[in-house]
TrEMBL record:
Pfam families: GST_C_6, GST_N_4
Name of the featured protein: Glutathione S-transferase family protein
Transmembrane portions of the chain: none
Stretches assigned to the Thioredoxin-like fold domain: 18-114
Any coiled-coil regions, as ranges: none
Database matches in InterPro entries: FAX/IsoI-like, Glutathione-S-Trfase_C_sf, Glutathione_S-Trfase, Metaxin_GST, Mito_Protein_Transport_Metaxin, Thioredoxin-like_fold, Thioredoxin-like_sf
Top-rank taxon: Bacteria
Domain Metaxin glutathione S-transferase: 164-225
Amino acid sequence: MITLFGSGPNFGLPDASPFVTKAETLLRMSKLPFEKAPMSFSKAPKGKIPYIEDDGELLGDSTFIRWHLEKKYGVDFDKGLTSEQRATAWAFEKMAEDHLYWAVVHVRWMDEANFNRGPREFFKAAPAVIRPLVVAMVRRRVSKSLHGHGMGRHSPKEIIELGSHSLQAIADYLGSRLFFMGTEPTGADATIFAFVVSAMCPVFKSPLQEAAVSHDNLRHFVGRMIARFYPELGELAGCKAAA
C-alpha cells in the first residue's frame, strides 16, 4: 500500500498544498491503492511535501513520485501523446509549478487578510505564548523564499499581473478541449488542475483569484477534474463540469 503524506484537505481543496494535490491526483489517475496520512517535515526525505512511502521506501517531490509510479507500476500518464506534446506538457507544468505557484503563495501569505483567512490556521497547535513568534518567523521564511525565487522582488500589482499572464496562457492553450492535452486526462492535467484550482480557491480574495475564475474554460476544466477524480468535493468556485 502506498501512503501519501501531505498537510490534508483544507480551504475546500484536496490539500492546502497544490504539490500534494498534484501527487494525489496522479495516484487517483493511476487507480493504484493508496492511503493518506499527516506529514512530518522531520521524516520528509527532502524536507518538503508531498512524499510517499511505498514498501518501506520514502520518496519526496511530486515529479519524482510520478516517475516512481511510472517506473515501478508501469503507469503511462502520457499515453497517446507525441514527443512534441510531452514537451509542451512539461513546459506548461513547470510554468504552473515554478511561476504561478509563487503568485499563489504571495497572495496567501503576504496579504494580511488572506493570511488570516488561511495560513494562520496552521499555527493553532502552537502554544499561545509563543504563537506570535512562530508565525512571524515562518512568514519571514516564506518572504525570504519569495525574494530568493524572484517573485517577491515585485510589487503586489506586478505579481498579480505575472500570475494572471500564466493563467491566460493556460486558458489559451486549453481552448475548447475537454482536458489539457485532448479528450482524456494525462499527467499534465494533474499538475494544471492542482495549481489552477489553488488559484481559484474562493477563500483567498484577490485579483489573481478573480483572474482565474474569469476564464470559463478553466472553470469547466476544473469542474471536469473534480467530477472525475474528486466527486466528494462537489462544486468549487462555480466550476461545473460542463461538456
